[in-house]
Sequence to fold (629 residues):
Amino acid sequence: MAMLEVNDIHTYYGNIQALNGVSLKVEQGEIVTLIGANGAGKTTTLRTISGLLKPRQGQIVLEGNDITETPAHDIVYKRIAMVPEGRGVFARLTVAENLDLGAYSRSDRKNLAGDLERVFSLFPRLQERQKQYAGTLSGGEQQMLAMGRAIMSNPRLLLLDEPSMGLAPVLVDLIFDIIQQINKEGVTILLVEQNALMALSIANRGYVLQSGEILLSDTAESLKNNEMVQKAYLGIE
Amino acid sequence: MKKYLKPINLMELLRPLGQLIVFSLGSAAVLSIIVLALAIVLNNTAAGDKIFAQLKVSLFAYTVANLPQVLVDGLTLGFVYAAIALGYTMVYGVLEFINFAHSEIFAIGAFVGVEILIALQNAGLIGSGSSLFMDYVFLILAMLAGMAVAGGAAIAMERIAYRPLRNAPRLVPLISAIGVSFFLQDAIRLTESLTTGQFNRIFPTFGNFDKRITFGKIPMGAAELPFSVPIKSFIVIIAAVLMLVVLNYLVNATKVGKAIRAVAQDRATASLMGIDVNHIIAITFLIGGALGGAAGLLYALKFTRIDPYVGFYPGLKAFTAAVLGGIGNLTGALLGGIILGLLETFAGSYLSIFTMGAAGVEYKDIFAFAILILVLIFRPNGLLGENVTEKV
Fold:
């Protein structure tokens, strides 16, 4: 049984259809990436999985349980965490408070200290800036904070929406290294990226999304070598 | 790493107390200096001559002698405004919407408390012959009842009149709030008329609340002016300070408070953290409503007479206080309330003297609303408006 199964979801913003029957699967322990152009529906897919948007049609199944109707604030209790597009850090809260909110859903308070240490070992910068307001951090630090906050909820499935957006190349490398590291520690990852080359280089499998539909799905390796993908998303003529 | 086994965070209890003291002393000092400077300037003018003819003291001596009384009265009123302003500012913080029906929540708290006290008086439990201890117990119980009903009303109001409009354009819930405000005024009036046959109610006379504690006499020329403070002013100040400290602790040092602040900043992301946004918004209305209800009873205690429209002016002034301090900012609401209460009392006490009776107490409201206009024009963020820059 797949860890996460998305079956033919149709999601609308008002009357505007954003997803036109998206289906995908994520297996335990994988890194799966969703690539596509602006407006293809990548973010909408993640927001639908995380419960922020309700699909008009279709199901989202987590380990055999239908979570289509589960509201966003209950999703994290199913141990799915999302790092939203644009990071979504609470700018007027301190770094420490942001991390603490990541653990809002946790009832095993005694394990939190260990998880906090884990976050600080992944992102030493956050430890230095604990008392600073999140709004004063640089873009890269905010991305680290958003990821650290998601880790604090102790997720099994992590949804990442454009973690490389607006970051300097050296930071993108760092963030992608950490994504791999988190994955090695047993967290399954669904990664949405515009930086398709980067995403395909760390993913096991990938889906190509276009106009709210899945155009292609394959292993990351074959997608990288696919002529159409190379032309449209990797900038290789 | 004892970080997560939180003991009482003493800092968060002391910080608001410090702020209250600093704000009170600061505003009091600034206003006193202005008034004293004005008194010196006016001392040798017709205004000074008039006072001298009446009371045989210089205008300056008169001003100085009255100052302690004015400051205490101003702070009492300021703390009441601050407690109401917190309700506006909390709801604004999470929903970015001005709950204009908050002044009626205040009135509900006042009416519930006063009706309970009147019933107790009729039952002979308070009033002549009752023990002072029981008087205080009943006062506190009446206040708690007023807070509970006001908080409940605020939750119901949110559920019925605001939640269905949450995704509507910003003007729509505002209009709904004005509708709720009118509805509640008339609902109070109807209920009171049907059950008691009248809708002006008087806070019963009991306990020692009206007794004045005399701190001494202040020389004023040849005469002496007694400086005394009624016990009820102390009750108002102590109750308001307690509420402000507890609220501050709740918002800044508890899990619920952190959730409230998260919802205030970004509802969608807050829900991703596992925070039930609707639940937190309801809690915000509950807290704001309970504070407003308590302020209502304190107001009734101080000013004695209430009617269904009693919330209108205090509500509008508390709203001004919230805007003055920086709407959405709890510390700002305290500061705004204290400034406004002091300013209004200063104006009420000195305006008529300084203008030789041309403008009297009845013009004191001009100051509150002139401030509202000036703040909106020159510093819309308020005195303590947000300065944290957000990077996107």
